[in-house]
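REQUEST ID: PR-0412
SUBMITTED BY: lab tech R.K.
PRIORITY: routine
TASK: structure prediction, single protein chain
INPUT:
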Amino acid sequence: MKGYWVCIYEKIDNAEKLKQYAIKAKPAVEKFYGKFLVRGGKNRTNEGIKSPRIVVVEFADYNSAVKCYDSAEYQEAHDILNGHVIRHHQIVEGS
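STATUS: complete
OUTPUT:
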């Protein structure tokens, strides 16, 4: 079964830091053959918190999604976000 990152941003305080993160995160995701299915764009909140940004990344399997998140390359990118965004990041298994 495939693995997915589902990332729902609650608050973005620094759009420039988010851009820096995205530039650095993309190669890390690609290294683990991740494919961006959703990256921002138009959205409508039906329940829960309103989100300014949603990202969904597909991986070949759940373990690849976990390995990518835990990798040094991704964690280096992730550190850029500290103090600049609030988000909910989950790794889920699906078809």
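NOTES: The mean pLDDT is 97.
REVIEWED BY: pending
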